[in-house]
Design brief:
About 0% of the residues lie in helices and about 75% in strands. The protein is mostly beta strands and about 180 residues long. It has a 5-stranded parallel beta barrel with strand order 8-9-11-12-10. The radius of gyration is 16 Å and the shape is globular. The relative contact order is 0.10.
Amino acid sequence: GDIRMNSTTVGNVLDVDGGAALTIGDATAGHRVKLAAQTIDFGTIRAPDIIDLHARNGNIIGAELATRDAYIAARHDIALDAVRIGNRLNMQANTITANLFQTSTQDTIYSVLTGYQGGVAKTVQVRAQIPKHWQIDQLSAVDATLATTGPDVSIDDGHIENTMALDTQLAKIRMNQFD
């Protein structure tokens, strides 16, 4: 059945694997959070090292997530109001909408933005407050809208089927496969 956790704090690892919907108000772990369910809905999730979320048959919807590295996969959609990341944010879903904030002082934030299980996302929309470099290792979408406050974005493996808009501190890039 459904799992509802209002406020949870653990010293090391929070690991929940549910068979239906998982709803979390506030969760904090001393090391890592690993959550899997059909759908995941949360207010705030915090862990200093890793957050791993997997919605096997639905959406991941959350207000705030804070960690060094986040791995987020949803069969349908990901919608995150505030993702506070120190090093890496990987997201895989049909539709991805997120606001990314860098919390570390390192020069680069790394990302993978694709469809579920590495496929092609229908839509990727990410706004990133990153002061320096955003390294996107893989981007795969029909339509992508990316914006960063930083001056520099690198996309190593990019696959865009329709349109892409990329705004940086220094440039605005528009791509359209059909015009």
